# Entry
Amino acid sequence: MSELPFNSTSYYHYLSEHKLMGCRSKTSGKFYLPPRPICTTAYSSDMEWEQVSGKGEIIAFTVITVAPTHMIEAGYSRDNPYCAAIVRLQEGPAISAQILGVDLSMPEEAIKIGTPVQATFIERGEGPAKRTYLAFEVVQ
Amino acid sequence: MAVKKLKRGVALVGAGMTSFGTFPGLNTRDLFVQAFQEMKASVDKGFDPKDIEALVIGNYSSTMFEGQNFMGPYVADAVGLTPIPASRVECACASSGLALRQAIMTIGSGLADVVLVGGLEKESDLPIARVTDVLATASDSVYENPAGFTFPGLYALLATAYMHRYGATPETFMKIAIKNHENGVLNPKAQFGARIADIMASKQKAAAKRGKPVPQWGSELDFLKDDQANPAIAWPMRLFDCSPVSDGAVALLLVAEEIASSFTDKPLHIIGYGQGSDVPTYERESLTSIKAARVAAEQAYATAGVTPKDIKVCEVHDCFTIAELIAIEDLGFFKPGEGYKAIEEGLTSRLGPRPINSSGGLKSKGHPVGATGAGQVVEVFKQMRGEAGPRQVPGDLNLGLTHNLGGSGMAAIVHIFERRQ
# Structure
């Protein structure tokens, strides 16, 4: 199988297969998630794909009540807000994603930085517009 | 690294702006003409517009807001300056901070002696949901936006990270809003020139008029903690933590230092200049500081040969209240993690020891994205020349600073101004 190029299209292709994938530079050993076509330390392009565990912790978050158009289309609103966060993965990099399974009524008490989370995948849209989004669930 | 400086000095000799607000029926060109006329009147000894050798404007997105790309030549035409070079630069909310920097470099290089800087944006023609989407095109469309982020959401990330690390509470952010509204009351150009207390009173009056129960709040803070009166936008950022949707335009006149005296006896010498960039929020080492701003500030202080404590008057980029808190730390006015205590103690009020945003800031004055950076310069120009009227910051304001951020802080531009007489 020929290797997918190291870019965002491939990242989302892997997400559609419910795999969270980054890439590692063979020259510098540096791990990139999201993937990059070149190592921005060594400036080499000898990358290889690596799947991550999906385990991580919340390092910053918000609860969004005034949603952008694509989230309104997904059913979110002032009455149905959502948590968006940055999650630091066990493997090192951090990534933006929605957080599922948290109580949104009292964010100050209910959501804590440092909370362990596990990657999950959300499917939105129909037919050609169908797309997979990364999310995380709080580890119980 | 050695400090690299301009080959010759540049001075600010004129500054003008429209009010910031919503102006149906006026496009960016109309607004810029107003700003240009005010700038022209501000040049003490007068000048002939035909002496202007180049125009640089900052404009975030007339492309999407008005369906007009390619604003440089249209703006040059609006003020009768063709056929001079007319350029538009874009750096999200730092677009006109960057226009100023490009104009400084144009003069510093020797290619021109007199350059007009513009900042302009017309946002209010679009419905609010579309405005939000246009602004969101400056956040990361590949990895941030799919997670549901909005600009208030990205700055809310910095707020939760700061609260967690240093123990600040949402009350700190509310106190920044109260302070900037206090300052905006004294600024006739401000979009929301009203104290929070005035806004409370008008809401009570409106309820009484409609025969509804009159809401009661014990204090401005009580009002800002009320989920009905001050709803969350992206927790912990609430409505009154966010700068508004605005229209506005600004014009600045820059000249080579050696000819400044033929325009005015009170030029502001632009002695410090810095610009930095950074990665998107999810890639940052720290979310409690904006590295691009620290880098820009370091360059600006180094080129100016001054330190943070020398700065007498300062406009920072408070697109959201948390951004002002982080700015006063990134600029070195307070140590990391101590800015919120300074706010609690009122040190950043207009009459305090470290006045921040005497104009009312983006919060109260308004935030017409591409006009904002140049708008900050208008305030510093007025304050340092003793022309700020009732909101004049006391003291000998010989050094002023502007801090202009782009997007979530992926760009920052800092300038330092000096008045020598």
Q: What stands out?
A: The two ends of chain B are 32 Å apart (CA to CA). The first strand of chain B starts at residue 10 and ends at 17. Chain B touches chain A through 36 residues (CB under 8 Å).
